[in-house]
Amino acid sequence: TSFGKRVLVEDTLGNNYSCAIRQHLGKLVAGDKVVWQTDLEANMGVVVRVEPRTHELSRPGFRGQTRMIAANIDFIGIVMPVVPGIHPDMIDRYLVAAKQLDIPVVIIINKVDLLETDEDWEAIAALLEPYDALGIELIPASTVSNEGLQTLQEFMAEKNSVFVGPSGAGKSSLINALIPDLDIRVGQLSEATGLGKHTTTNSILYHLTRRIEGSDEMLATGNLIDSPGVRQFSPSPCELSELESYYPDFAPFLGHCKYKNCTHSIEPNCAILEAVENEEIAVSRYQSFQRLLTEFKNAAEESKP
Ligand code: GDP
Ligand code: ZN
Predict the structure, then answer these.
(1) Which of 33, 269, 282, 298 lies most in the core, judged by the most C-beta atoms within 10 Å?
(2) Which ligand is closest to the CA of 182, given by its number?
(3) Are 92 and 287 spatial neighbours (Cβ–Cβ below 8 Å)?
(4) Residues facing residue 46 across a β-bridge
(5) CA–CA separation, 57 and 295 (whole Å)
């Protein structure tokens, strides 16, 4: 994690060192791999190099600048709760954001312990049908019944993961279930950084561990990076054609509209609208596409001088 002008660096043995950063390196974030020099006696060091990042998670910051949130993420769990409800619109926003970064996703259907009847399950399954058709992995999960937690751990093995999703989706509960000694670690971090618990809004990388069956030994099984910023991660405004490319279910129909630059809203002889009418494209997918298009158009207008 980074704090103030320093970062807490973990060495290969799992020890943490508070490090200064050589000025030309810019801001460092959770997930960065660094080369550093240490003064072991003082438990301090200085970061002298950052390895090239594979993925940068960032969010819009002050005056159109972007603020880095995390680096080297290679797995996104979109957490959606069955109660109060699954919102396809939100899923689609996260899917577009993940596609923009080219990071693989799963959808975690959370709190399934609250589904009581077959009808409840069917209603959820109907909402999720478009994602199933796209080949996206759907993981029913619950921290009450522990369903899905092992599957999730398997997906997260050897990766740097983040959980995204609306507030109340159960992300904290999932993280607590996957990192049983989280409280202790947060305590250790706050000691090492000199900051109070829960005061840092910067991303923190945690190791996931799993108890080896029939033993007291814990197995390291990947990392989870979390922060308020990570959780609210959203797509960046883009052009129509780029947005289209993030909707693979639209692909068979693209290029068949009457107008070449068709926005698939009010134009006559629109192949996308026809596909929606013929139930070849889910209405919810069409609607989220239009909402994002409008949002991106507004963002482009606002940023004009
Ligand atoms: P976050 O805002 O996404 O971090 O969500 P929280 O983890 O804080 O959970 C929000 C609420 O949902 C809390 O009241 C939790 O107790 C509850 N909750 C979380 N996971 C589950 C679950 O698997 N089943 C049920 N029934 N409730 C859950
Ligand atoms: Zn069209």
Answers:
(1) 282
(2) 1
(3) no
(4) 20, 37
(5) 20
